[in-house]
Amino acid sequence: METPHAALLRSRLSDDLEANVQRFQRILNADVNSDAHFRYFTTGEKRVCLIYIEGMASDAKVADFALRAMADHPGAENLETLRERVLELAQCDMAESVGDIARAVVTGMTALLMAGEARALLMETRGYPARQVDKPTNESVVLGSQEGFVESLRTNLTLLRRYVPSPRLVTESLTVGRDVPCQASLVWLEGVTPEGVVEALRARLMAVDAPAVRGIGELQQYIEDRPWALLPQFLQTERPDRAASCLLEGQAVVLADNSPYALAAPVSAFHLLHASDDGFARWQYGTFLRFIRFAGTLVSVLLPGLYIALIEHHAHLIPMSLLASITEARASVPFPVFAEILLMEFSFYLINEAGTRMPRQIGSALGIVGALILGQAAVSASIISPILIIIVALTGLGNYAVPDYGFGLGLILYRLGALLAGALFGLYGICAASFCAVTGLCALRSLGQPYLAPVAPPRPHGMDILLRGPVWRQGKGGRS
Amino acid sequence: MSEKTTISRASAVSGVAAALISRAFYGLMVEGPALDNGAWLSILVGLALALPTLWLFRRGVGRSARLLLAAALFVDAMKALEGAAFSESCIAFNHIPSAVLALPLLAAAARCLVLGGDAVGASARIWMRLFIPALGLIVALQWSYYRPLWLTPVLGHGPGGILRGGVRCGLWMAMLGGAGMALCREQVRFERVVRTLAVAALVTAILILLRLMMAPACLSGDMGRALRLDALLTNGRAPLLLQLPMIVIWFVGLTHLLCFEIWCAVALVRKRS
Amino acid sequence: MRRSLALLLIIALVLSGCGQTVEVEDQAYALVLGLDARGDGGVELTIRIPRIGHSGDSDSDGKSSGRPYLVLAAAGESYAQALEQLQWSAARELNLSHIALIVASEALASSAAFPRLIDSVAETRHLYTTAAFVVCSGRARDFIEGQETILGAHLSSEIAAMFRHYADHGYIPRASFAELYYATHSCYSDPTAIWGFPDAGELATEDQPAAAVITDDDARLNADTLTASSRQYRGAALFLDGRMVGRLNGSETLCLRLLTGRVTGFGYAAAGEGLNLSTLRSPVRRVRLDGDRVRLQAEIALISEDPADPAVLRAAEQSIKRDAEALIRWCQQLRADPFAFADRAAARFATYESWLQWNWRERYAQADVEVSVSIARGGS
């Protein structure tokens, strides 16, 4: 079934001004949409009509740089004259397709139609409200830039240009979404980003056949190698310095309008565990922090499963002094260990989710609720044992140490798998589950590149995987 | 389809090495009749016995040979599976039938068939990188318990026992090395094959020596597979906590062995040329 | 393929042991296992289980609530039968994986049935043989029942702490059940066990004081001592082919440990003076073959912590040398080799067969003994 006005959108302008205006009035539902404006004006002997959406286009720009300009310089005979001699706007392009013009108008541009012309001028008059560049909300660092991407694609591209002020930086515009187009940009560094990567990413973006793409997260799911995999195959960052670093390392970046995030690919699992300020700190501290982060990842995934495996099936591996403490603590707990862990994990995720959705005004109350009721009171009431609080807390901390949010979410699912494997088959189950997980990661690809490269398969690499070597040994800086 | 029946050179090297170390160690120290002090010599004899067979493989493996190799690998994989299930039964789940205990490994092997040989080999490479530091930690913690004098008499039960063990090791090496060569996507030089097997044999020999230094040979009667496994994992002389990394190394090694052998067996059958 | 995988995993889920697991707080963890011979040839087993919630001498309210341990015993015609009875008597799942001490009575350890019993214990599922091994005078059950908790010690670690303390002073060997098992079945040296005995006060009666009743040298030494525990550990039991064949007192055990390199510092009295000695380097033990004649050589190098009189040091050297040679000769008579001379002799042979054919035991019994002791003068 075709979308409404599909035929109109495919048509081209005629030289009849009124007919053209009527087309646009139908497309934009002018009889209902109160923000679609059609401003007639006469310049010299020619009648023109400006079409714009109030709020998306800046009234001041329309008035000052279009209407006043035409009023001050009457007598333009055609659109070419208007563009080159009258209109005082930085961007002013010709268009003939009704669809292109309509799509431009709804994004904030103003279309100028002239009687007798089968073309229109598209003037850059965007003036919709947008968030200012601010600190990133989800990727905090101690050292480094404090700027984050915003919803405006143009602003984001500008930020990237500032961090990579090189004429080799290419920003290719694309549109994704069949019915509701979304502006996107494919960004790469010429001479650094392999051509194969750019072509592959471009091809995937062009192949997106969705009616609408609602943001970068959704776009990622359309272009990933394996959308069914638990872990992301793109790096999602809201930091322009991180995106710039990806460009300098030979990755390509995708930005989309209305999304304060950038996607970078190809990435490996190691990229997703690196943080922005690893490079800012001295190499010793950077290496130390990476070890902490890797250890935190392992703790996050394996600790609950190991705990239940040891307690349930391999108690002889626990030193007697610790086992005695655990036994004493669990003596009054009515639930089996597995149920206890599931209860605590569920509570933790519930607190997590509630903390994300809760209004800020009552956000501080959540900490009190979580700590008192779900922690202290539960232990006092012998619903759970104290050691499990420590286990779950360490697990949560390990998860939050992962810089990439999507990667952290994937680890949660791996953790549940390890928990189940440990509960069912003890250490044997955890070994089998770990093997399956690692093998799966070895088979995973990001834009065709192995997910665990350069470790497996082995490839020459600089000192920037687990160890963060000195920067002068890493060979970065825009060289391919 | 070709990626599912072939393996890259790097993956083949890692996969063969990891599988061989697990197979030889399990076969010589737990599964078969006790070779005791002669076991580490058996692995070296096995390397010498396997090289002529592998020399024949270097020009390619015909269809009949591939099918025979596949059958041998499959049978050996089932032995590894049984060994893993038995180990788990000894360690924790003595009340569960071995067939049930084998299910997780069968699921892992089936997953490897889906993911392909490159994934299995890459996983083996990661395992080899983790295995060495883990072993180093165990050696460091057990250092004071080693008794080098228990390595003597050096020939153990004599040349006959060493040769018998060597024949078994040679079969495993020929099987795994031949599978790696037949399924490798790129051309493999024979020197590379020899080097891979030699390194794996050396690592296995070191593991055997370490194990022999932890518990002396039991000469009055056969210990049985359960006690031999117990002597390997718990030993009784070292702290019980050290059993944790030993168990992990043991099961992960057997898992790699099983999955690699099953993948090789299926790939050899499916390979067309 | 994915459906098959999922099906396999679901089957594994259903058939796995998840539902049959006994929770950790529902198990009884035995810390001590006792072995006694029954008069009719059967076996009696005794175990000591800490009560959950007891982490010291009193409960969490500070009130004395009875003994922190539970002692259970069961007998049977065989070890397996006795163990089954014990499982039943525990009234919950009995877990033997944390046993820290195995005690065997002297009568049982000396009997012909003990080697088979060693195998049975080693083959017990989930009984890991890292436990210390003690041979006690009297019944193991009485010995275990009388072992009191040492004040301030955590129940779970007191046994290890106690033996570490005794071993550091050199008067007991570091003996584990695993060492006993392996040495019994191997072709090398012979194992030892820790010797335990009740406190002198326990043996005294109204008519006879403790000093008159006890015959043990070490017990007599402790007769007038107020000890922290009613069970004393001092000395070693010697084993040969899985049976106890002799016993060493505390001084002899210290000498044994000097010869095997297991003691670092100790006190010694010579020429009326006390010395603080420590090991300068590991002792050297050699087995020399002169034709059919075997010579056992040992070199002990010590250092005096204090600047002692050289004459006293020479006297100490002679005294230690005499004690060491007497000890070796005593063990030769028993044909037990706890000094690891066999390990060194075996290195000269290529195969087990040739080593066993050489008949080490007889050659060891006839061997000449040479011990040299040197004490360097230390201190300022």
Oligomerization: heterotrimer
Run of helices and strands of chain B: HHHHHHHHHHH
Largest sheet of chain A: 5 strands, antiparallel
Shape of chain B: globular
**pLDDT averaged over residues of chain B:** 89
- Interface with most residues: B-C, 46 and 44 residues
Mean of all residue-level pLDDT scores of chain A: 88
In terms of DSSP E residues, the strand content of chain B is under 5%
Strand order of the largest sheet of chain A: 1-2-4-5-3
**How much of the polypeptide of chain A forms β-strand, as a percent range?**
5-15%
Instruction: Give me the number of helical elements of chain B.
Output: 11
* Class by alpha and beta content of chain B: mainly alpha
Number of helices, counting only DSSP H or I runs of 4 residues or more of chain A: 16
How many E strands of chain B?
0
Explained architecture:
The complex is a heterotrimer of chains A (480), B (273) and C (380). Chain A is α+β, with helices and mostly antiparallel strands. Chain A contains 16 helices and twelve strands. Chain A has a five-stranded antiparallel beta sheet with strand order 1-2-4-5-3, with helices on both faces. Chain A has a five-stranded antiparallel beta sheet with strand order 6-7-9-10-8, with helices on both faces. In chain A, a hairpin with a 5-residue loop joins β9 (252-256) and β10. The two termini of chain A are 48 Å apart. The mean pLDDT of chain A is 88. Chain B has one domain (2-270). Helix content of chain B is 75%, strand content 0%. Chain B is built from eleven helices and no strands. Chain B has helices spanning 2-5, 9-31, 39-57, 63-91, 98-101, 103-115, 117-142, 159-183, 190-214, 224-233, 243-270. The model of chain B has no long low-confidence stretch (mean pLDDT 89). Chain C is of the alpha/beta class and 380 residues long. Chain C has two domains: 26-248, no CATH class; 251-380, 2-Layer Sandwich (GMP Synthetase, Chain A, domain 3). Chain C has helices at 2-15, 79-89, 106-109, 114-123, 140-146, 158-168, 177-185, 200-203, 210-213, 217-221, 250-260, 310-334, 341-346, 352-357, 360-366; strands at 27-29, 32-37, 43-50, 69-76, 93-95, 101-105, 132-136, 192-198, 231-240, 243-248, 265-270, 273-279, 284-290, 293-304, 368-376. In chain C, the strands form three sheets. Chain C has an eight-stranded mixed beta sheet with strand order 4-3-2-6-7-8-9-10. In chain C, strands 11, 12, 13, 14 and 15 form a five-stranded mixed beta sheet that branches. The chains are: A alpha+beta (480), B mainly alpha (273), C alpha/beta (380).
